[in-house]
């Protein structure tokens, strides 16, 4: 399969992550009612520019507080002005991408050094930007931390060990691993054009509303055999996490990763309702530099600066192993043919990680559409070109 065809296939699969962020008309939605999708998907770019940086102004969030010790990002600027990339047979310069209105921030880190840190006007290193489905990869790592801490025995445990309401339902034979790989085998319609689809009815559900909805679904495939992007199950991973640790996910993130690893700035995590649970598959708002640190933490396999480990040995290798249902997906991470992996969110949010070349590339974006725009294609090609350039 050519790079261009694979890129378009990946973007097509990514389209299902329009999960849309769980950004609902949330402030007046309770976890006991079925939430309704919000309007950010259909807002103008100007409206989204404001909303993406100030999401806590309109939606309930929980604060993620940074600590005193900051993981250093050493500035070692490199000139990428001559970088070019190809798209649909046409050559573009790096400046063509940077001048696109949709590009808000881009950072390239390699083996301790920041080679590039770019922000458009009105955006800087202190700007917090909503990550959308990038957050699901963070939740995946927190599942790893919960295994390391003994709250969860293994990913092979049935989800019923943590969500007892699933006993006697289609989820009775589903494991945590199946859910992490989007391969539960349970029916789920992720068609955003269908007002009767599952994602239309419960794409923003959280808490008891989510569990009730999923419990009524039927099975169509054996668990673990078929990849089917399921917005509800990205939030289900958050339910499993909170049930296992007996705490909210934000507090766990703060004390397991955010402060110990040395994130520089405070962040926020979108809640399903006021004082409710975090939206496991969406919407941590953080600076671009801390996006990059998330990637560096993943690359380190959860080893903290003091040498202690947050994740089980080999967790990230396991998380980024192709699943049976789809070779391009692991434990809530998108996988590339080259062995690199990514956390991706709608409207062009991204963290690219390549362990071999010790490269992390992070992007803040405001694409014109959630997925499938020309900007998305440009971003993918720029990330590929930057990675190739610094890996030489």
* Second-tier CATH architecture: 3-Layer(aba) Sandwich
The CATH topology corresponds to: Beta-lactamase
- First and last CA, distance: 24 Å
Biggest pleated-sheet summary: 7 strands, mixed
* Radius of gyration computed on alpha carbons: 19 Å
CATH homology superfamily: DD-peptidase/beta-lactamase superfamily
Quickly give the structural class: alpha+beta
Number of discrete helical segments: 12
Task: Provide an overview of this structure.
The chain has 392 residues and is of the alpha+beta class. It has a single domain, classed as 3-Layer(aba) Sandwich (Beta-lactamase). Helix content is 31%, strand content 15%. The chain has twelve helices and 13 strands. It has helices spanning 3-14, 45-53, 94-98, 134-148, 176-180, 198-202, 207-215, 231-245, 249-261, 288-299, 315-319, 374-390; strands at 61-64, 74-75, 84-87, 90-93, 103-110, 113-119, 129-130, 267-270, 284-286, 334-335, 341-345, 349-354, 359-365. The strands form three sheets. A seven-stranded mixed β-sheet has the order 2-6-5-13-12-11-10, sandwiched between helices. Helix 4 (134-148) packs parallel to helix 8 and helix 7 crosses helix 8. The radius of gyration is 19 Å and the shape is globular. The two termini are 24 Å apart.
